[in-house]
């Protein structure tokens, strides 16, 4: 006998119930349908009084009663259940799903387990025609079920990581008299390797934008570490802050050959004076009130390459006059801009929607990009 209370707690803790479809799980469902040539496949989770399908083909819905469900029987025995012809099997011949719609005949279900080993659902195959199911097919079903388990556990871990990363973005941007600030970041997948920060310190707006090479969990972890380093001792001069991040990456992560491009800048609120250190990023621009564009760059390789002494980092300087705007972005934005006139595209959106609207529009287009998109705009009001 299974411990139903413990089983339900494990299912609830997984946090998968009533979540949207997941392409990673759907892919396994499609593969199972093709491999076994059955009309119906389901990744079914057994809830208190229902069976809920994370993924399904041919069943026509994501939810059904738990009572009399073949998948409930599979979970209760916590072992593979194969019924080659339900109409001639005493245990299931009177089952409402056999005697009535959809008139099931064949069923093969493999239990799915939570990380603690509790049976929480099944990967199951169904058909309205009887069929045999040999040992090789049982093994294949077991292998596919293990794959589903891994994806479900990964989804929980990713959900936690996404939540942590979301909480590391600025919850609210500082209100700076005479300036309009906007920023945002959107991951092309579940986790972003980009991040940005905007803070007000000692009469200056400090801006940071960084982009870790690659996508996924690894770059997201590195991005969090880089953000933490930049936030430590916020009164450090720009060059010193960048040099410290460079040192940490080289000492702790040098073997990973994972580079980071970054922009770290200060804007004096009173004068609009801009000081900026560019570590191989080259995507910081001042859009003048007259519509012209000024690239703001300083000589420097990406962080983590270990090839540039701190004293060789340079500070680029410019002045934001009333009506000017500083725009910094990750290279994912380049994927969604008009390739014939990218600067004109940005200028039009900024003029029509303002800084916050322009950032929102850029993030909305992340599905058209091949990389994460992060954008920061600081406009000195006219």
From TrEMBL:
Q: Cross-referenced SUPFAM superfamilies, in alphabetical order?
A: GAF domain-like, PP2C-like
Which residues are in the PPM-type phosphatase domain?
Answer: 194-380
In terms of superkingdom, the source organism counts as: Bacteria
Against InterPro entries, the record matches this protein to: GAF, GAF-like_dom_sf, PPM-type-like_dom_sf, PPM-type_phosphatase-like_dom
Known PROSITE patterns for this protein? PPM_2
Please report the name of this protein according to its UniProt entry: GAF domain-containing protein
Q: Which source organism does the UniProt entry give? A: Microbacterium oryzae
Q: What is the lineage of its organism?
A: Bacteria, Bacillati, Actinomycetota, Actinomycetes, Micrococcales
């Amino acid at each position: 006998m299974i411990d139903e209370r413990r089983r339900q707690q494990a299912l609830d803790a997984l946090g998968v119930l009533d979540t949207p479809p997941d392409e990673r799980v759907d892919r396994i469902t499609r593969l199972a349908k093709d491999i076994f040539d059955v009309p119906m496949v389901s990744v079914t989770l057994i809830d208190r009084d229902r069976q809920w399908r994370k993924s399904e083909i041919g069943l026509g819905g994501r939810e059904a009663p738990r009572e009399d469900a073949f998948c409930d029987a599979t979970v209760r025995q916590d072992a593979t259940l194969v019924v080659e012809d339900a109409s001639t099997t005493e245990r299931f011949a009177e089952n409402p799903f056999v005697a009535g719609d959809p008139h099931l005949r064949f069923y093969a279900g493999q239990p799915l387990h939570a990380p603690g080993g509790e049976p929480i659902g099944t990967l199951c195959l169904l058909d309205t025609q009887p069929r045999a199911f040999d040992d090789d097919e049982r093994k294949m079903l077991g292998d596919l079920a293990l794959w589903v388990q891994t994806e479900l556990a990964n989804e929980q871990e990713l959900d936690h990581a996404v939540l942590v990363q979301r909480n590391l973005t600025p919850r609210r941007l500082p209100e700076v008299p005479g300036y309009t600030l906007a920023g945002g970041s959107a991951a092309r997948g579940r986790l972003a390797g980009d991040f940005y920060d905007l803070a007000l310190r000692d009469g200056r707006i400090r801006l940071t934008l960084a982009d870790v090479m690659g996508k996924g969990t690894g770059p997201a972890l590195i991005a969090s570490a880089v953000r933490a380093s930049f936030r430590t001792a916020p009164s450090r001069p720009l060059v010193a802050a960048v040099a410290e991040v460079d040192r940490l990456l080289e000492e702790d992560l040098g073997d990973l050959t994972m580079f980071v491009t970054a922009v770290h800048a200060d804007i004096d609120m009173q004068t609009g004076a801009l000081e900026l250190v560019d570590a191989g990023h080259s995507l910081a621009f001042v859009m003048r009130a007259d519509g012209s564009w000024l690239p703001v760059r300083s000589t420097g390789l990406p962080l983590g390459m270990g090839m540039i002494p701190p004293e060789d980092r340079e500070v680029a300087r410019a002045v934001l006059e009333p009506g000017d705007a500083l725009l910094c972005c990750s290279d994912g934005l380049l994927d969604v801009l008009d390739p014939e006139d990218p600067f004109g595209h940005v200028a039009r959106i900024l003029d029509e929607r303002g800084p916050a609207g322009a950032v929102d529009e850029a993030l909305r287009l992340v599905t058209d990009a091949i990389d994460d998109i992060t954008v920061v705009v600081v406009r000195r009001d006219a």
